[in-house]
Every structure is written in structure tokens, then in C-alpha cells.
Write a structure and sequence with these properties.
Shape of chain B: globular
Strand content of chain B: 15-25%
Strand content of chain A: over 45%
Largest interface: A-B, 24 and 24 residues
Order of helices and strands of chain B: EHEEEEH
Order of helices and strands of chain A: EEEEEEHEEEEE
Distance between the termini of chain B: 27 Å
Structural class of chain B: alpha+beta
Number of strands of chain B: 5
Oligomer: heterodimer
Strand order of the largest sheet of chain B: 2-3-1-5-4
Radius of gyration of chain A: 18 Å
Number of helices of chain B: 2
Largest sheet of chain B: 5 strands, antiparallel
Largest sheet of chain A: 9 strands, antiparallel
Structural class of chain A: mainly beta
Helix content of chain A: under 10%
Helix content of chain B: 10-25%
Chain lengths: ~140, ~120
Amino acid sequence: MAATKRHFNVKSVVTSGGLAVTFTGVTQASIDMKGNLVMFSGDGDRFPTTKVNDFADPTITIQSADLTAIRSCLPGSACTLTVTIYDAKNVAGGVGSGELTVVLSNAIVSNNPITQQHRQFGSGSVEFQSWSSDGVTSPLATTFA
Amino acid sequence: MADRMIDAVFLPRGYGAGLTADAKLARIKADFHNMLGGGRIYIRQAGDGFLVAPEEADTLQFPKDHVRAGSDRYTWQDRGDGVRVGVLVPEDAPIEAETGATMAAVEKLRARLTVPGAPQ
């Protein structure tokens, strides 16, 4: 079956390296380059005349009902984070043929809050920020096999 | 799994202009997947383009804490259309021998490389 170019649900969220956690009950995975634009205007400009992308700070935030997994991700823990998103028709095989898999190298947990309400499923999130080893290569990669 | 002929590919930002994202990925796969060993490959923004490499932690330059920080980890060869293919510079070669190591990498690249569409 050909890839649909549409995606539906999160297949897996796994960390490896210094922190080994498999998330279950994932309700949302937010993948954000957090790119920044610097703009210039001068003289009588009423609109920016130049914009450049000078910086990005790739971040992935996982929301899950798996409170134990969330609480095991202590702030400051370093790992590699792999998120795989289903093709809408569950076609396997990676980008170009179905699933979308992104990997955040040099990931580091910044926060892991949880919330539990009366008569509700508990939920929480883990924010993984990252750093670049060389300063010019993004730690966020898209991968396929 | 194919034998790895090269260690990385650098795609300029305008690579595959006019193609859909899926078509670009299909072209990357067709052109480089086997040359990179046929396993999982990772595409990431790097410098003013994209680095395509077989390891999740591959970087364009040596890391900040390396003695060669700021210099490329690869010896590149432009195939004529802005796309560069590269082989790793030996990480443990002494700095004074870098020229020799680089030339050895170039020779390795020339000996093994057959790039589709490259000028002969």
C-alpha cells in the first residue's frame, strides 16, 4: 500500500543512551525547531526589509498518561529521543513510504510536570531540549531506512 | 545491506527545487541510500544545507571539544550540481599529518566513487 502522506497517532516514543524510557499512552508529540528570525528595518521603513534565520533550538515535548515514565525523566537527563508517527494507513518503512521517524540527538530533559485530577486520567509531559555538538548541525533529524 | 562507499552527503538548501518533499526524499533514497550502506539514514539541517548521513549523531564539523573543532569532519567532493559527497577525515590522525590524511581520504573517495549524474 502506498504511503498516504497523512499521519495518524504516535507509534512509539523511546529514549536511549543515558536514559532508557519507553513511553506508553502517548497523547501528543510536539516537534518544534524553535527557529528564530531577526529582522531589520530603518529609515522610514514601516515593514521589515530583511529577515534572517540566525538560530534554532530544536525541542520535542511528549504528552502521555504514563506518569511513571514521565517521572523517571529527571531534568538534566541526557539521551537520544526517537519518535515514530504512523502513516494514516499504517504503512511501515519510514519517510517516503509511510511512517515518519524523527530523532533528537543530544536530547536533555528540561522539565517533566504531571497533573492528576479527581475522576480523570492523570497526564503529564516531558520537554526534551537539545544541543549541537559542533554548533552548525541540527540535533533534530528525520530518518528512513 | 550494501557496502558503504561514502560517509555523508551534503545537499544545498535549493536541492530538488520544484520537486515535492516526497519526490525529494525519493531522489535522495535513489541516489544515496545504497552508497551510504543501505541502512537507516538521517537527514538534518547543517550549515547552509542538509547533512545526509548513516549515524544519528553525525555532524558536519568536529565537535566543540575536539582538537579539530570548527573544521569539517568530511573531505568533500562536489559532483557538479552543488551536491557534495564526503568521506570521514580520520579522527585520530595527528594534526601535523592532516594534509596527508585528507589526501588519503580524497584518494579513497576517487577510487570508490561513482556518483549518478556526476561529470566524468
